[in-house]
Design brief:
This protein is mostly helical. 61% of the residues lie in helices and 8% in strands. A two-stranded antiparallel ribbon has the order 1-2. The longest helix has 44 residues. It starts with a helix and ends with a helix. The mean pLDDT is 78.
Amino acid sequence: MLLTLSDIELAQDMLKKQNEADKNKKKKAAEVCVIIRIFFKLVNLFPQKSEEEDHPLDKNYEMLNCKLEMVKAGSADYKLIEKYFENTNKGSWWTSAKKIINIWKMDRKDEVILILDHL
């Protein structure tokens, strides 16, 4: 009988220790959750800029509702404009001093529709 009582006491002590360990684990998990919540609150208080601010000239072009693309140097459009440039100013004194730096293609919103209306 005494052995049975001592076994019961040992089992109860083991359960108490296990319950205390579980409580400690739950307490630590709750502390981690609190730390995570504080972190996310701080991140929302001080949001970081995800994008750089646009240059003022870019904002002006956006207001014009147009799309700008740089024409690549080897493309057919570039070669055609370069040929026009050379042929238009053949023999003039400033042709040798001037050269094409960049060519831009501009697409205005609804411009095609306006042109087609007049054809």
